[in-house]
Amino acid sequence: MYKRYDELKVGDVVRFHGANVRIVKYKEFPAPANEWYPNEKTISFEIEPADAEALEILGGFYAYGGYGGVGCLELKVVEEA
């Protein structure tokens, strides 16, 4: 199953750059004027590794921290919150 960025919830485990990560924070912002996706919200989320393999794949820097994009982007869901 896939979820749009604007459907993600804290606690969801998603496949991110080949690794399973957990969403630990989530925020939505209105789309800025004259943006490429004018009708889409801007999403910001923070992740942490969901398993040991995530650290091997992403490394300690990329397995933690903030990411984001517009609401129509999708991630594969491994486990729903």
List keywords for this structure.
81 residues; SH3 type barrels; six-stranded antiparallel beta sheet; elongated
Give the SSE map.
Layout: E1 2-4, E2 13-16, E3 19-29, E4 42-49, H1 52-62, E5 65-70, E6 74-79
Antiparallel strand pairs: 1-6, 2-3, 2-6, 3-4, 4-5
Largest β-sheet summary: 6 strands, antiparallel
What is the topology, as strand order, of the major beta sheet?
1-6-2-3-4-5
Q: What's the architecture, going by CATH?
A: Roll
The total of helices stands at 1
| Helix fraction bin | 10-25%
State mean pLDDT (0 to 100 scale). Answer: 93
CATH topology: SH3 type barrels
The termini sit apart by: 13 Å
Catalogue the unreliable spans: none
Question: What is the count of structural domains?
Answer: 1
The whole-angstrom Rg is 13 Å
Percent of sequence in beta strands:
over 45%
CATH classification, class level: Mainly Beta
SSE order, one letter for each helix or strand: EEEEHEE
Number of strands: 6
Structural category is: mainly beta
Shape: elongated
Oligomer: single chain
